[in-house]
């Protein structure tokens, strides 16, 4: 049996001797995924710190610790880091890299050197974004949406942030491209599309969005830079340019981007639910096809971000209808997951707790999205705390919670150890209670008119901000506890064995835990469905020397 | 990355030259069309000729003719672009408040006094009156 | 660094039937697919720019026709033919490589590089002529609120003209770089008639660059062709003196 991937490595350039250089130059998908995770979660906590600062500022009316201009920079920084540096690379960069090739029985992705290059492109983008904190007139103060004409006129570091976002977008595109070719070309013999695990379907649908939607924002950012620098006129009303065109171009990407965030997360949900219900997933084909349809229909709904910008009435109606329509495949998934649990033997370990918690929080996020898909309601609720609460329930309570579920679920695969289960459960409850305390009051505040991106407010809103402030502290403690659990258990946790959950997909059929550099000893022949259970036990068993079935 | 199929240059090069001739003919049509035929629909005809050239290049120079999966991905990507086009252009064609809008064709000149009323770059002072008709007079006298 | 020694794995079924496993090495089709997917992103980028162009065309049709009429169709048309021929030389180069004629392939790549430089040179002349006429980013005609300001539609037309032809030219420069790199790898025996995926993909890239021009040229240069009539370009002004045209 070869050494684990922590011991050996393949490198992009030469044969480095030191451990550090072996990691920095590695082309191994598992190591690249870990490096993405380390960088991304560091930025996640920086953005959380920014958010805490904002919550402190907003605890009472009036200025507490910062003035209005700094507050504008704070919410821009929070948004840019969370969106471009954390959640968009997100689950694909970490688990798409580490787990997806294992699940299809591949030795690596289709273009490992491109994967290495993409990681460093991501680092370059992060560096450019962060550098704008200390140069010129400080970080951009436009909001992460960079709307014209303000972004063209402000003298804060908009250009470097736009360039950073462009570079990060390129990294996203190349990741998607790599995964698309990998999934088309490197599936184990016998594994056709409808024998792939649903997480792979999620990554596949996501990759299509990464590939085709990101270039639109790429060119939009370039056009914005050219507008700011050379005055080409397309977003500048003084030359006949239309700021609403910027909004169209921006949201043509940024709406599919949210599907890019949630689809891999739904893939994780589809992996966890069957394992912890000890039965086959209900409606495999419909879940798979619903991923594809969410990706497809998701291209068509961006206009719901422009309802208050002066679009024609017919366009508003079309977008509203399509937005309602795109909720349907998501609903189908939810029903399928619940049906899977019905008459299953539900095991409430930490990954399952996170999955079940997400069903609650994402349901709230999704349904409140449907509320503001109504044009009439949106006129009142657009740009209030209602929208902010909606997307935080959906992104934090959907994508990030499932990301955490995946971290717990695949912790044994990556590290070979098991995290502490009781600490994990406590951390979950802190997070779950925290998110509801933090965000639910904002629905009410928004309904009563509290605008977003405001650093000051009328005294009638104070109570909501104070409850949110408490919630922020609760969720922060939950996050810190959870990450402490991971870091501590990585070094000191018990050995987990190769299949601690007794699951069926191929990443649990590796010869050792953590996996060897070369993944499976031999590529298996896949003539089985991904979630075959019989009376709660997996049907498929392998001889790990030859990877032949022995059931 | 290995391919063991040996290709016969002499046999295949004919195809490449035929495509070249076809593209050159289409380019000449592009040049003579505006003064010769269908002159009322120059925009459409020009882009149609472009489309035909594009399809020829895709099928023959880029070898798309034999490809299934890649062909469908091209179709998918182009359809997505066309959808974006249609909705956005539909939206701008149905400008809700054309007369009050600063940027629609009613107001055309960036150098006119009315334009200065809204623009942040102009150093002209605010003028009274002004509706779109006086602006279009100004526009016609610009350099041509 | 070469993957010529790659031996594919075998997966065996329960009954002993063997299946060859597609690895990431030695995957010609995968290399093709990956590059096509990359080209689709370029289609989306230029597609979005055409959308911006059309957006303002809808608002300012006559301004666009006027602006288009003032562009230099002779130089633009010449460039169209240059690019067309370069696509041929690139394609023939690939064909020669696939049929074993490495020397001929390199010659064709050099020919393509020559035509690429020719294209860029003519483009530079075009842009200088426009600058001479006062039509350029940053000059008065394309600013607002001064006596030389063009109408909205023309400012937007020229803004997108310089953006799109500029980005297109940038892609030509990248193409030249790619072709020089390809020549280097051919000389190092890393691109051969048996392993020519890089050559294939670079030829595809050049065809894409040509494809973009196939739409850029008529949209900018030809839509106003009947409006302005044909006029001889004032190349003499490039060498100093006054232009008596607009």
Describe the model.
Chain A has 551 residues and is mostly helical. In chain A, 64% of the residues lie in helices and 1% in strands. Chain A has helices at residues 19-24, 29-57, 68-87, 90-98, 100-103, 112-131, 150-153, 158-185, 198-230, 243-277, 284-298, 313-341, 350-373, 375-381, 385-409, 411-415, 421-447, 462-492, and strands at residues 533-534, 537-538, 542-543, 548-549. In chain A, the strands form two sheets. Chain A has a two-stranded antiparallel sheet with strand order 1-2. A two-stranded antiparallel sheet of chain A has the order 3-4. The radius of gyration of chain A is 23 Å and the shape is globular. Chain B has a domain at 8-62. With 144 residues, chain B is mainly alpha-helical. Chain B is flat and about 65 Å long. Residues 110-144 of chain B have low confidence and may be disordered. The longest helix of chain B is centred in the N-terminal third of the chain and has 28 residues, at 9-36. Chain C has 246 residues and is mainly α. Chain C has a single domain, classed as Cytochrome c oxidase, subunit III, four-helix bundle (Four Helix Bundle (Hemerythrin (Met), subunit A)), CATH 1.20.120. In chain C, 67% of the residues lie in helices and 2% in strands. Chain C contains seven helices and two strands, in the order ββααααααα. Chain C has helices at 28-59, 61-69, 73-98, 102-132, 152-187, 197-222, 225-228, and strands spanning 10-12, 18-20. The N and C termini of chain C lie far apart (59 Å). Mean pLDDT of chain C is 89; it is low at 229-238 and 240-246. Classes of the chains: A mainly alpha (551), B mainly alpha (144), C mainly alpha (246). Chains in contact: A-B, A-C, B-C. Chains B and C meet through helix 1, helix 2 and helix 3 of B and helix 1, helix 2, helix 3, helix 5 and helix 6 of C.
